[in-house]
Structure formats: structure tokens, C-alpha cells
Design a protein that fits this description.
This protein is an alpha+beta fold. It has three domains: about 10-105, Phosphorylase Kinase, domain 1 (2-Layer Sandwich); about 115-215, Phosphorylase Kinase, domain 1 (2-Layer Sandwich), CATH 3.30.200; about 220-439, Aminoglycoside phosphotransferase (APH), C-terminal lobe (Aminoglycoside 3'-phosphotransferase, Chain: A, domain 2). About 40% of the residues lie in helices and about 25% in strands. It contains 15 helices and 15 strands. The protein has a five-stranded antiparallel β-sheet with strand order 1-2-3-5-4, with helices on both faces. A five-stranded antiparallel β-sheet has the order 6-7-8-10-9. Strand 9 and strand 10 (about 210-215) form a beta hairpin.
């Protein structure tokens, strides 16, 4: 992939796998390829680029480059990193100065996720997972392992951890480590949902003052795979979403939970997505014109609010086919980190947007991209869920814009074309028939 650097990004070569590989091997890193897979850009200030490194001799590891517009800022970043005594890694030194603008961190070193090694290094699991051991049980470091599922530098990491003991038994857990100490709040909410019959991963432990959440690992396959295999019924997915949305039947119950949950509104979504479109225009100026049209259409068509404690549902907050697990027909929602109160159209719009985006992002069509998603929404409404057509279309458009942002941030091949197609699809949902004819 040939990356197009934004105007103030002098290190655009680090967004290209071939150029980045040359840069890092010239520094002496023992790698065969450096693949950039995530970028976060603040115009005029700094850029974070995450990498997957294929290590010479086998194996993979991760790291990220912190690029600063001002060299003196890079001096400060490097000095602080060195003062924290970085750990050596399979790549050598845990922190390297790439050039006058850039500092490279190699896993498990991270400027803000300071305890990363305790959850990504199998040798550390014996100590960090000790709270999960049964009385008299000895955790075996050799029999334990950690697999990184998602990593956003200086923000969050999600790992699947397999904990082995001296007797040869294992247990799998999901470890989520973030910079925000909200694990205790999340565990309280999930415990309450589970008490009311919502299928969700059981909380197991909290560490690091609430910044680390350890939860039950749900077996099975993600919904996307189950859809492609036709191993799940739309009604089962709709029932799981309805059970979550309607878990608190009375206004008193909703009001009691409100103290522990955020509320999301269409106005909140508009503000969030407009910031995202501004960032997209900065990172990809060639998409700025279309981004402006989409932002204007969103603002013009934002749905009216829903009265609190009447029309609000308990939202998953990030509902899509990779955040639902299917195991022998049973449907379980996972990654409830964004659970909130809000219009039900937020969840169903995001779910629909992911299905619409899949052919564009992955270049494949599937059963889930059309009939399955429509059937889930139909079953949801038939069984008591209330959805309004215009807000559903608006939140679907928001979901498509999120997909465009992810396409660019994750540096996917042909990201500009995909981003443009996704924004155009979102715009088509927002325009009236007259506006479409006049375009």
C-alpha cells in the first residue's frame, strides 16, 4: 500500500509497510516486515502509528511510533520514556529514537499502559493472574499464554489469556486493560444485567485500581461466521438484543440504574461523529469535500430527542457481528464496555451499518449483508421492539461513517476508495428523494 501523507505529516514513509520496514531494519531491528495497522493523528501536533512486526527467525510482536511535529516535543517524549526504565524486548531496546521527530516503543513498553507486560508476557501471568487461582492451586507460567486480540497504543489492549496450572488444567479469560479506571462500574452493570437474564460474560476480577477488567471468555464463533455458515436464526439474535434493551421494565428500575450508566442521544452522536469527520479530513484531505457534505446532512437531519425513562433502552453501545458470540445456537453479547441508555435505533443502526459496510471493506458479500440483518430487525419489531424509520436510517448513516473512519485509521488497502464509498452510502441515507435527484 502506498500511503498518502497529510500535509503536516513529514514521516509519511512510516505509514507504508515497505518504507517502514527499511527504516526499522536500518536501525538494527531484527524484523522481516513492519506492517502499520492503526493510526491516530492530531493535526499539527502528533501521530501514533501501531505496527505488527514479523520477527526474523519466526514469531510476531507489536509496537508503535510516536511522531511529534516539533522535535523538542519528541525530545521530551524520549527523555520521559527512558526515565521509566523501558524493558528490553525481542526487538532489542524497548524504546528507540528513530529520527528527530519520532520515538519507537516496542511491546510491552507503552507510554500510558505502563503495566502491559503483566498481561502480555506469559512469564508474568503466574503473578498477575494469581487472584484467579483456587485455594492450593499453582499457576504454571509454562502452561499459560497470552494472545493480543486488539491493541490501541496508549489507550487499550484486549487479550485472551489461557491460564494453566501444575495439574494440566487451563481456564481462558478475557483481559481488558485501559487507561480509564471504569472496570468496577462495568462489572456492577454486567452483574445486574446477568441477574435479570441477559447473557453476558461473567466478571472475574479487577486489577490496577479498576483499569484492568478480567472476564469470562465466551466459547463459540463470532456472529459473522455463524451467519455465513447459517448456524444461527435471526430471531435468536433479535431476542438477545430485545432482552438487553428491555431488561428494566419499569421507569423506577431505569431511573435506579441511570446513576451508573451514561446516556447517549442523537445530539451526542452528532458531536462525536463531526469530530471524527474533522479528523478524517485532516488525515485524508482528498476526502474533506465529501466529509463536509456528510457532516452538513447529518446536522440537517438529526432526530429529535427521546424523553428519558420512557423511550430509552439499555444499549449495547457497539453492536455488530463481531461483538456477538454464538455457541450451539446460544447468543451472547460481548464487549459491553459502551453499555448506556439511549434510543434503540443506535444499536440497530450500528448493526445494520456493519452489514452494509462488509462488502465495501472486505470485498465479499454474505448472507449477513442483506436478508439476515433485515430479518433481525423485522423480528425485533415483531416481538415488541419499537424502531422509527428516520432515526434508524440516521443512526445507520452514523455507523457507516464510523466504518469509514476505521478503514482509514486501520490503514486498510485502498482505504481512500473504501472511505469514499462508505461516506457516499451514508450520505444517500440522509438525503431526501428531491435532494438525490438534484445532486
Amino acid at each position: 500500500m502506498t500511503a498518502i501523507a497529510p500535509p503536516d505529516l513529514a514521516m509519511g514513509n512510516l505509514l507504508d509497510a515497505e518504507a517502514a520496514t527499511i527504516t526499522f531494519t536500518d536501525l538494527g531491528l531484527p524484523i522481516t516486515i513492519a506492517t502499520p495497522n492503526y493510526v491516530r493523528h492530531k493535526q499539527g501536533e502528533s501521530t501514533i502509528i501501531a505496527y505488527r512486526f514479523d520477527v526474523s527467525g519466526g514469531g510476531i510482536t507489536h509496537g508503535y511510533a510516536h511522531w511529534c511535529a516539533r522535535p523538542e516535543r519528541a525530545d521530551d517524549v524520549f527523555a520521559k520514556a527512558i526515565s521509566l526504565r523501558p524493558r528490553d524486548t525481542v526487538l532489542g531496546s524497548g524504546v528507540l529514537r528513530v529520527d528527530k521527530h519520532t520515538v519507537l516503543y516496542a511491546l510491552p513498553n507503552d507510554a500510558r499502559l505502563r503495566q502491559l507486560r503483566w498481561f502480555t508476557d506469559p512469564r508474568k501471568l503466574k503473578r498477575s493472574m494469581a487472584t484467579l487461582a483456587a485455594p492450593g492451586e499453582r499457576i504454571s507460567a509454562r502452561a499459560s499464554e497470552s494472545e493480543i486480540l486488539r491493541y490501541k497504543p496508549e489507550r487499550r489492549v484486549v487479550c485472551r489469556v489461557s491460564i494453566g496450572n501444575a495439574q494440566g488444567d487451563t481456564q481462558d479469560v478475557l483481559v481488558r486493560y485501559t487507561t480509564k479506571p471504569h472496570a468496577s462500574k462495568l462489572h456492577r452493570v454486567v452483574d445486574l444485567l446477568r441477574e435479570r437474564g441477559v447473557a453476558a460474560p461473567a466478571p472475574r476480577a479487577m486489577l490496577e485500581d479498576g483499569r484492568v477488567s478480567i472476564d469470562e471468555f465466551i466459547p463459540g464463533v463470532v456472529l459473522r461466521e455463524a451467519i455465513d455458515r447459517r448456524d444461527v436464526e435471526p430471531a435468536a439474535v433479535a431476542d438477545a438484543v430485545l432482552r438487553l434493551h428491555h431488561v428494566f421494565a419499569s421507569n423506577d428500575e431505569r431511573a435506579g440504574l441511570a446513576a451508573g450508566l451514561d446516556t447517549r442521544t442523537a445530539d451526542d452522536e452528532l458531536e462525536r461523529i463531526r469530530r471524527g469527520l474533522d479528523g478524517l479530513s485532516s488525515l485524508r484531505p482528498q476526502l474533506a469535500g465529501l466529509s463536509g457534505l456528510v457532516a452538513a446532512a447529518l446536522t440537517r437531519t438529526v432526530p429529535d430527542g427521546v424523553a428519558p425513562n420512557t423511550g430509552y433502552a439499555v444499549l449495547h453501545g457497539d453492536l455488530h457481528s463481531k461483538n456477538v458470540m454464538v455457541n450451539e445456537g446460544a447468543v451472547t453479547a460481548i464487549d459491553l464496555e459502551r453499555v448506556a441508555f439511549g434510543p434503540a435505533e443506535i444499536d440497530l443502526g450500528f448493526f445494520r451499518a456493519h452489514a452494509l459496510a462488509r462488502p465495501i471493506r472486505a470485498g465479499v458479500s454474505s448472507f449477513g449483508c442483506g436478508p439476515f440483518t433485515d430479518d433481525v430487525i423485522d423480528a425485533y419489531c415483531s416481538n415488541g421492539g419499537r424502531l422509527a424509520a428516520a432515526p434508524l436510517a440516521w443512526h445507520t448513516a452514523v455507523g457507516l461513517i464510523d466504518q469509514a473512519l476505521l478503514t482509514v485509521r486501520h490503514l486498510e488497502p485502498n482505504a481512500d476508495r473504501k472511505g469514499s464509498d462508505l461516506l457516499a452510502r451514508a450520505l444517500s441515507l440522509l438525503l431526501t428523494k428531491t435532494e438525490k435527484r438534484n445532486r
